Amino acid sequence: MFEVRNLTAAYGQSQVLHGIDLSVDRGEIVALVGRNGMGKSTLMKSMIGVMPARSGEIVVDGVNVTALPSHRRVASGLAYVPQGRQIFGTMTVKENIETGLVVTGKSDIPREIYDLFPVLKDFERRRGGNLSGGQQQQLAIARALASDPKVLLLDEPTEGIQPSVIRDIARLLRDIRSIRNLCIVVCEQLLSFILDVADRVLVMEGGRIVHTDTREHIDEAAIARFLAV
């Protein structure tokens, strides 16, 4: 469903990604982990097209989207929940979700989204900026799902969220995977969250993938060492 092939990216003369290869199956949740500065967010931005790749390919369901701008990648099936959520604070919850509908040509929010996020239905006329951090994260995910994606990318979804809500976010991602049968790639540093949601864990260090584990064989101690400062 989703492939990244030999992807490189750089800020000026400073190369940040060094030949990333990544393949994600339909219905799979893959976690990209690593300390700050290891290239995780750069990889996310390169995959969605916010940052241009220097070389390599990004393929969604057999379609090479590498040369496409971000909005056309979204139309091709990629959805992105950025670090910090970046919802529209002055717009209502309903209006925020409706911005995700643009690429689908639809005007009505699918009932399924409110079934997944009942709190957003309750607060649909409330301004996004007046929601709690956890509610804003749900709103950002709902907005991404409104574009009817095949691949959902999430960058640091637990950042600034209290532990009880983090468990809710983990459950939501598993529910979304089950209902939509899409693939999910999540960048994260919180090990407990990773162990809760991931089918496969890829560790990034120095702009490279240096360690891989499946759920059945996750070496928690090894991953914790990679995350240690």
Task: Describe the overall structure.
By secondary structure, the chain is an alpha/beta fold. Helices cover 34% and strands 27% of the residues. It contains nine helices and ten strands. The strands form two sheets. It has a six-stranded mixed β-sheet with strand order 6-7-8-3-9-10, with helices on both faces. A four-stranded antiparallel β-sheet has the order 2-1-4-5, with helices on one face. β1 and β2 (14-24) form a beta hairpin. It is globular.
Question: What's this, in brief?
Answer:
The protein has 229 residues and is of the alpha/beta class. It is built from 9 helices and 10 strands.
Number of helices: 9
Strands of the widest sheet, in order across it, are 6-7-8-3-9-10
The fraction of residues assigned to DSSP E strands is 25-35%
Q: Characterize the main sheet.
A: 6 strands, mixed
Q: Structural class of the helix and strand makeup?
A: alpha/beta
Shape: globular
Q: What are the defining features of this structure?
A:
single chain; 229 residues; alpha/beta; Rossmann fold; six-stranded mixed sheet; four-stranded antiparallel sheet; 9 helices; 10 strands
Please outline the helices and strands.
Layout: E1 2-11, E2 14-24, E3 29-33, H1 40-48, E4 55-60, E5 63-64, H2 70-75, E6 78-81, H3 93-99, H4 111-116, H5 118-122, H6 133-145, E7 151-155, H7 163-180, E8 183-188, H8 191-197, E9 200-205, E10 208-214, H9 220-227
Parallel strand pairs: 3-8, 3-9, 6-7, 7-8
Antiparallel strand pairs: 1-2, 1-4, 4-5, 9-10
